[in-house]
Amino acid sequence: MPENTETYSLSEVRTNGTNGDLLDIRYDWDKIPVPSSLKEFEKRWSTRNNPLDYSGVWRFRELFPFAPENQIVTIGEGQTVLQQNDGVAKYAGINSGGLYLQYEGMNPSGSFKDNGMTAASTHARMVGAKFTACASTGNTSASLAIYGGITGLFQVLVFVGSGKIAYGKLSQALDYGAVTLQIDGDFDDALKQVRRVCDQAGIYLCNSVNPFRLEGQKSIMYRVLEGLGWEVPDWIVVPGGNLGNSSAFGKAFMELKELGLIDRIPRLAVINAAGASTLTRMYNDEGLRWNDGKPDQNLIAEYFRRMDEQDGRAGTLASAIEINRPVNLTKCLRALSVCDGVVRDVSDEEILDGKAQVGRHGFGCEPASGASVAGAKLLREQGIIAPSDRVVCILTGHQLKDPTVTVAYHSGDREALAKHGAVEPHFGNAPIRVDNDFDKIMEVIEQYSGE
Ligand SMILES: Cc1ncc(COP(=O)(O)O)c(C=O)c1O
Ligand SMILES: N[C@@H](CCOP(=O)(O)O)C(=O)O
Predict the structure, then answer these.
(1) Residue of the nearest CA to atom 7 in ligand 2?
(2) How many alpha carbons lie under 13 Å from residue 307 in its C-beta half-sphere?
(3) pLDDT tens for each residue of 294-322
(4) Number of structural domains in the chain
(5) 229: domain range?
(6) What is the ipTM of this complex?
(7) How far is the CA of 438 from the centre of ligand 1 (A)?
(8) DSSP codes, 23-34
């Protein structure tokens, strides 16, 4: 994505420039009336004078002004919450009052994807698309399917890998009426196929290669700032899969700074699963950097060549981030450069322990989201995050998305958890088996009543 080499009209449907780099949306801010302070946006929620203000995404519409208001497709997404959480702070080694969880599970389809899908669906409508598609580990498909289903604006086609999708998510796509193709491969294979299919058949693609989708995902950061009274935190910690979120967050902060709406930028930590750690390996081991939009292509090609030689399949229980060929790699490198970022990977065990803490003390989350808490803990242990820092962990998906992994963890089902290596379930809260007998039930309850 070299800077400013090509320009395309809003009415064109494309994800890449002629050189193959993903497109990026740019605005001529001099021509757009942007509020002079972020506080102005606050009034939107209290007054809700415009139906668009019911959306936690579109009430910030001046910060991604690509759509006429009458074309905007919204289903009330982005009404999410920033929760200060001392239980999780203690676990991560952060001072009381310093850790926040941004819970994106409250979106209509139960994940952060709706922030982006409302924007991609809007652009799809602007160009008259009747058929949309995505590849998915589950959440993108659930999100696209709900937008297609509720609005009736377009038919939805979904590609998923075999055995790679949590049932909660698959059931959403089916229920919302998406045509679902389960292909013999993983997410990386499914994305490759859907990109070809969309190109050839003129279907509108809604994965994070779609630059409009990332515009909507910027709003997660606007809401975090709003939740903090417009103060900039020290850290944003986010799980990394296809790297759309981290890319969008970096762009959000870059633009807010350019517009003079914030005076400093938080640091960004992107957390991979150890079994899907392309970014970690490339950033930390190979030293890959943004370099004015021209990261070393030879280094990238060589990395993937070696990966292919060794089979290169991603493997983690956090299926949402089981991705080894992140399409937004270059944009994420920009975000890391803008935000003085760091990248880490954490084991499945650390992810599930982090997730259990979020469940114990907060709204709960799906496995991939636990990576942000595990990442914050690791960075704290490494002395990179200070105990006094203000840290926001992004919880990307709802607790109910992947009950199989959650129940296996709490029940101590090591066999089920061992898919990608041994996982010790530390904070198990297994169901207690008890006879169908009143006295025996009372005996069990008495053991707990003194606590
Ligand atoms: C729940 C969840 N968390 C994290 C991610 C990773 O986000 P990204 O692809 O934007 O890096 C995904 C999907 O990609 C997801 O579904
Ligand atoms: N976890 C994702 C993977 C696809 O990512 P996308 O951001 O490119 O759509 C999913 O839920 O499918």
Answers:
(1) 208
(2) 20
(3) 999 999 999 999 999 998 899 999 999 99
(4) 1
(5) 81-109+215-417
(6) 0.99
(7) 46
(8) P-----GGGS--
